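can u do me a favor
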């Protein structure tokens, strides 16, 4: 299993049963097996914010959040840096070009910069990745 860029939409599906599916579960298995994943600098903040909001709304318990965080901290996660210039220029350009949020454009920038495939459940980010020539992770693709 080759390294890939992971976004928050896949990560959070591992915490919320109603968002999990065969795709996210297979990627969870890859991560648990030690596959290296690369994330945008915004990833931890994005994941944390959604977990806090979900806990406040009663969607998830504090105990579940703690177990989830303990689990993902065991994974081989490499936080990629983006300079202020890269963010204000490149990420902004990708967001404008592909009509993405700056957060999603940051994941796309990391995939482009590192030449890695992208794992996401976000339809707009998938479309942008394809348009930008970034391969999407398909854990069920037959290797020949």
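np, heres the sequence
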């Amino acid at each position: 299993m080759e390294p890939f860029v992971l976004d928050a939409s896949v990560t959070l599906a591992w915490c919320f049963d109603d968002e999990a599916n065969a795709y996210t579960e297979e990627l969870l298995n890859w991560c648990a097996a030690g596959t290296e994943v690369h994330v945008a600098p915004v990833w931890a903040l994005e994941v944390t914010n959604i977990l806090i909001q979900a806990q406040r709304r009663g969607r998830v318990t504090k105990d579940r959040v703690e177990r989830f965080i303990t689990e993902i901290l065991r994974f081989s996660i490499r936080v990629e840096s983006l300079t202020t210039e890269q963010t204000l220029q490149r990420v902004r350009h990708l967001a404008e070009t592909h009509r993405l949020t700056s957060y999603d454009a940051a994941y796309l920038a990391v995939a482009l910069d590192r030449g890695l495939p992208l794992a996401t459940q976000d339809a707009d980010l998938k479309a942008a990745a394809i348009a930008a020539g970034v391969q999407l992770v398909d854990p069920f693709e037959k290797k020949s």
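The mean pLDDT is 94. hope that helps!!
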